[in-house]
Design goal:
TSP1_rpt; 1 helix; sensory transduction; TSP-1 type 1 repeat; Furin_repeat; alpha+beta; Hormone Receptor, Insulin-like Growth Factor Receptor 1, Chain A domain 2
Length: 210
């Protein structure tokens, strides 16, 4: 860059031929730009991405944000806007929101989510409101919503779930057995009667032939 009316010296109070701006005009921020092995000073109205404006009595400067994956920050330890693909939460940037917080996609922020309690014990295994008379049934467990989300658009996780279970008593004491069991016994009895009848016919035919 050439010393004098060159754009590199725009806004400078003092400018060096080799190093660019050394001091900036009032309200502008001094930014030390690095390009390979070379670095030179610039005077800017606002600091570039990854930096924030630090005002001091001596000279306003662009200071680097110390928050990882931060695009712009309020101070070195508080990010106001994260890089693309990251969610902002309490001045930090996250790939996914911490536990207890939900992602607000339109703002790329983490807000308080729906808080639920612990799961209850599994309930009694039953089917059709009966705890006997079937081989398999369902058991259910639940949990309570402890805190509702700040935004109505954020759904709560499931508060009830069921799973298949084997009943402790397949046959109800003192009750009738299921119709399916009766049908099986009846079918077996008919087969026995038919077998006995066929055997009797065979014996009668054998005696006649003799």
């Amino acid at each position: 860059a050439n010393y004098g009316p060159n754009p590199i010296c725009k806004g400078c109070l003092s400018c060096s031929k080799d190093n660019g701006c050394i001091r900036c005009q009032h309200k502008l921020f001094f930014f030390l730009r690095r390009e390979g092995m070379r670095q030179y000073g610039e005077c800017l109205h606002s600091c570039p991405s990854g930096y924030y404006g630090l005002r001091t009595p001596d000279m306003n400067r662009c200071s680097r944000c110390r928050i990882e994956n931060c695009d712009s920050c309020f101070s070195r330890d508080f990010c106001t806007k994260c890089k693309t693909g990251f969610y902002s939460h309490r001045g930090r940037c996250f790939r996914g929101c911490p536990a207890g917080f939900a992602a607000l996609e339109e703002l790329m922020e983490c807000v308080e989510g729906c808080e639920v309690g612990q799961w209850s014990e599994w309930g009694t295994c039953s089917r059709n409101n009966k705890t006997c008379g079937f081989k398999w049934g369902l058991e259910t467990r639940t949990r309570q919503i402890v805190k509702k989300p700040a935004k109505d658009t954020i759904p709560c996780p499931t508060i009830a779930e069921s799973r298949r279970c084997k009943m402790a008593m397949r046959h109800c004491p003192g009750g009738k057995r299921p119709a399916k069991t009766k049908d099986k016994k009846k079918k077996k009895k008919n087969l026995m009667e038919r077998a006995q009848k066929q055997h009797s016919i065979f014996l009668a035919t054998d005696k006649t032939s003799q």
